[in-house]
């Protein structure tokens, strides 16, 4: 092997070895996390043809992700250039949203002012959007994903792979079902996840950030890294799919707590305490559900970084802050209907995830008799469902098992 050991940093050397001798060696990893931009084998699609990408969803994040993927597909020969983006059709000033997107190159409703790329094609027919697609990128609000998957049964190639960017879970009789599991079960394809500290509008402005791909197959993870990684959106991968997904999902519940703190005009010490205890319960939940998940996951973008950004900048925090004001005016109106009303008033068609996730999560905690093990999540749920005044957000210790 012709490598000058003195001039090559050790990780680059490992990467070079991987490139030459894969699959004998896995890609370079640090603490279980594959480093971004690592050289890895140019794995061809199994058919020998290029990967065809379909984005299922075209909201705020879906549109940003279409833009990123479209940038990478034209630069990387393993992908077909065209990125199809399924659009839930609606009328914008009498015109179909999909037609407006294809004419203007912009999603005027969910991501105004941002050009998606000439190779993004908005398609309102789901089956046409996913026809022959071998990389399926799911990015809808979580309540719609199962129905969409059911419509797709029998209409996607057997060797297709999926990745979910969706934050949320379903509760079934046997326990929690993460969105990636729902996709795997309904469609019979392997599903990875991408989560991170990614407020869509900031990523759209190409402000620097990071994200984490959870993909059990370390070699294939590099295909997803190639699809999403850019100079401003840096993607690392880890094999721990469930750990990444649970972080991304449950942090929306912690964000409700952060919004209550803001609504009560409490300062940053209190908010930091709320975030810390939220992270602690996130970790405890992951361990109880999925066994010993490595702490590396919490130090990735999907963990502590996503928690910070969501508790400062996300839509769940924003609506939760407003909830406190409305609750003070009329406590009897607290609960589900107030969230629904505020979602409509404040989010312009975007969907709120935190309240639904809190309800699903609490169902799980009650079914397993874990409420006292998760006093903070339980307190948030009691406030969110209108059973407790938001002023009690810092009283979670009173609920804990001594
Ligand atoms: N927006 C962000 O900053 C962000 C960042 C990271 C992850 N996410 C996650 O991405 C996922 C999608 O969020 P988003 O921001 O792209 O969406 P969004 O909330 O901006 O938009 C809602 C989308 O749902 C569609 N929709 C409405 N009714 C529907 C129906 N009946 N069936 C199917 N679709 C319907 C709308 O057309 C729209 O595309 C969510 O799970 C979210 O948690 C969002």
TrEMBL record:
Reactions listed under catalytic activity: sn-glycerol 3-phosphate + NAD(+) = dihydroxyacetone phosphate + NADH + H(+)
E.C. no: 1.1.1.8
Top EC class of this enzyme: oxidoreductase
Gene Ontology MF annotations: glycerol-3-phosphate dehydrogenase (NAD+) activity; NAD binding; protein homodimerization activity
Annotated active site: 251 (proton acceptor)
Keywords associated with the record: NAD, Oxidoreductase
Binding annotation for substrate: 167, 315-316
Ranges for domain Glycerol-3-phosphate dehydrogenase NAD-dependent C-terminal: 241-393
Record has Oxidoreductase as a keyword: yes
NCBIfam families the record matches: glycerol3P_DH
Name of the molecule in the record: Glycerol-3-phosphate dehydrogenase [NAD(+)]
Organism: Cymbomonas tetramitiformis
């Amino acid at each position: 092997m012709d490598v000058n050991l003195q001039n090559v940093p050790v990780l680059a050397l490992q990467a070079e070895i991987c490139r030459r001798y894969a699959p004998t060696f896995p890609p370079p990893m640090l603490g279980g996390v594959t480093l971004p931009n690592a050289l890895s084998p140019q794995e061809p699609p199994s058919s020998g043809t290029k990967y065809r990408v379909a984005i299922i969803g075209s909201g705020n994040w879906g549109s940003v992700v279409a833009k990123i993927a479209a940038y990478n597909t034209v630069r990387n020969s393993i992908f077909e250039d065209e990125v199809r983006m399924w659009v839930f059709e609606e009328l914008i000033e009498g015109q179909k949203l999909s037609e407006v997107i294809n004419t203007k190159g912009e999603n005027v409703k969910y991501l105004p002012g941002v050009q998606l790329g000439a190779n993004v094609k908005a398609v309102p027919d789901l089956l046409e959007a996913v026809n022959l697609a071998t990389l399926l990128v799911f990015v809808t609000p979580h309540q719609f994903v199962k129905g969409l998957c059911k419509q797709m049964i029998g209409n996607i190639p057997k060797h297709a792979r999926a990745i979910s960017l969706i934050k949320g879970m379903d509760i079934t009789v046997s326990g929690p079902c993460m969105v990636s599991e729902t996709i795997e079960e309904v469609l019979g394809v392997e599903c990875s996840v991408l989560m991170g500290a990614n407020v869509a509008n900031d990523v759209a402005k190409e402000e620097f950030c990071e994200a984490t791909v959870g993909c059990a197959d370390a070699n294939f993870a590099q295909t997803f890294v190639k699809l999403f990684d850019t100079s401003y959106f840096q993607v690392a991968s880890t094999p721990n799919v469930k750990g990444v997904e649970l972080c991304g999902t449950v942090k929306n519940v912690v964000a409700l707590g952060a919004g209550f703190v803001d609504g009560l005009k409490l300062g940053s010490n209190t908010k930091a305490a709320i975030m810390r205890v939220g992270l602690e319960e996130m970790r405890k939940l992951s361990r109880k559900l999925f066994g010993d998940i490595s702490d590396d996951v919490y130090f990735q973008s999907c963990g502590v970084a996503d928690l910070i950004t969501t508790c400062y900048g996300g839509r769940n925090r924003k609506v939760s802050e407003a909830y406190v004001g409305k609750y003070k005016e009329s406590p009897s109106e607290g609960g589900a209907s107030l969230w629904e009303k505020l979602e409509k008033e404040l989010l312009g068609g975007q969907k709120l995830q935190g309240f639904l996730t809190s309800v699903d999560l609490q169902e799980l905690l009650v079914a397993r008799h874990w409420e006292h093990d998760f006093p903070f999540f339980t307190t948030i749920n009691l406030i969110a469902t209108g059973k407790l005044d938001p002023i009690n957000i810092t009283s979670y210790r009173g609920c804990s098992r001594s």
